[in-house]
Amino acid sequence: MQGGSIMTDKKMPRELSDFGMFLKIELVKKGITQEDFAKQLGMTASYFSNLLYKGKGTRSGTKYLPEIAEKLDVDIGQLYKLLIKSKKSA
Fold it and tell me: Are 60 and 87 in contact (CB under 8 A)?
């Protein structure tokens, strides 16, 4: 092909929401993997991953906030604010 662009099947990387970035940082601080944390919450790693990213098809995560806050020992109010901010900017 000369002078053209080549389309690939590669997906564009998804962007973490503020909520997702906060959760990932807390998980790293505590030495917990996303997969292990998802299991602790009783969900698949894929479902948990969808809580962390911006964009169409992501999960709200609202019903899991109390359990996430408790397991990570963080303020639920802070989590809720980050979640709302993240969903508004998606």
Answer: yes
* C-alpha to C-alpha distance for 76 and 60, rounded to whole angstroms: 15
**Residues 24-45 pLDDT 10s:** 999 999 999 999 999 999 999 9
Neighbours of 90 (CB within 10 A): 12
Residue with tokens 């359990």: 67
User: What DSSP state is assigned to residue 63?
Assistant: G
| pTM of this structure | 0.78
Calpha distance 30→18 (Å, rounded): 19
Which strand (E) or helix (H) includes residue 50?
helix 45-52
Q: What topology does CATH give the domain 18-89? A: 434 Repressor (Amino-terminal Domain) (1.10.260)
Pair 50, 59: CB distance under 8 Å: yes
